[in-house]
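Protocol step 4 of 5: obtain the predicted structure for the target chain.
Materials: sequence only (see below). No template structures provided, no constraints applied. The aim of this step is simply to have a reference model before the mutagenesis design in step 5. Sequence pasted as it appears in the construct record:
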Amino acid sequence: MIVVAVALLAALALTSRSEGWKLGAARWWIWLVLAIPGLLLCIDVVLGASGVRILRSRLAGLILVGIIVLGNVVGLALLIDGLITQGSELGGGQLLLTSATIWIANVIVFGVIFWDLDDGGPFARARHKRATPDFQFPQDENPQLARPGWRPHIWDYLYISLTAGTAFSPTDAMPLTRTAKLMLSIQSTISLLLVVLVTARAVNVLGQ
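Step 4 output (structure tokens):
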């Protein structure tokens, strides 16, 4: 999943270069810089399949994912700065592509965070039944609805992230721990700001 976010940032960088897009003092290559942590994580996953790991611990992986989230926040800050300093010079295409890239990357990254956060992470969940979950799925509350041997997978956490990015709140899975609530709050805030920026720009264009 992270490779999709990296590809989107790379595509945004190349498009920005070809179109001559700028966001304040930032240039097109800033999106490539923001893609580096995600690229490192992808390389680590690929090398891990052959027994070689760059990241020696789960904590190191979480820190790297946190840096990716920070990169999304930096991208959002650049977008806000561009709207303030450039005004009408910031075209609709640039605004839509940049905000969509940040939003999709945000959904993917937080989906990975939720997957790695819940109940000690995927490896811990594989070794025991759900004991201290960070998210309560409908199947947890109503086991009779779950198929035999059910356990949440990455797609379930991506769905949580997608709904948090669109509804700005949890839907089917409820956060139980403070950490889960904090992560959902950060993601929802980033998504809300992106939607507000796009809406404000659209109203401004229609009013001209």
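Step 4 remarks: The mean pLDDT is 83. The beta strands are 135-136, 174-175.
Proceed to step 5.
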